[in-house]
């Protein structure tokens, strides 16, 4: 069977969620559509689809294969469209190089939904042929195993073997509710936190450190937290409800301070900026859509000029 036709059938089945609906979109019977998918599975040596109730859903390999097939088919359509450009094809410059297809991107929940979402909206508006599948996870992800094209990682160093682009760090600020401060007093310097209830944050089973810098000196401490949250939004609500002092990202804290629900403390001290990286797999072909996505994000969140990627 023609491999491109098999890919087209597979993509239609995944999009429709069933063999019968995907087959109808391709103008064939469900039995014939199943044979096309089986040809691909035989080539790969693994199943691409599994049944979930009445629906056919892609396996982990199927999700990754679907994204690649969708891009291949989109590029074929772009190539065919060159015939509409006239004899010289001059009216379609860059038709094939235009980013197309789906990108699976991972980010920490709060970073993705608050800091990155406005930038994602701008990106999609300027890239109508690209779709983002956004996985928000408050843990480290395995790009190879989970089929992630690119991942935003906050804090720490990238895993060795990944291509890492350095982005601007996320500054955290200390804050508490007016009611808590009226009840427990206002800390004037980091050492005063020993007498306060501190709200901890755990990411990927690692308890976050409270690190401050003042007058050119820096130091770190790990507080004994009465409440430890695995999500910054939960930590935010705990602080708003007077449960203690929290260290929160500046972009998340600003609206609550403006509304008077939280007050900054230790304003002479700054929580050291967490490094953030955009990473993808090394040692493999980088598609045009991934390369374009990385450059767009670095231009928005990193230095003015996109630096060369470095292997971690």
Automatic annotation (TrEMBL):
It comes from the Bacteria. The keyword Acyltransferase does not apply. The keyword DNA-binding applies. Residues 1-59 form the HTH lysR-type domain. One of its GO terms (biological process) is DNA-templated transcription. Keywords: DNA-binding, Transcription, Transcription regulation. Transmembrane segments: none annotated. One of its GO terms (molecular function) is DNA-binding transcription factor activity. SUPFAM superfamilies: Periplasmic binding protein-like II (SSF53850), Winged helix' DNA-binding domain (SSF46785). Belongs to the LysR transcriptional regulatory family. This is LysR family transcriptional regulator.
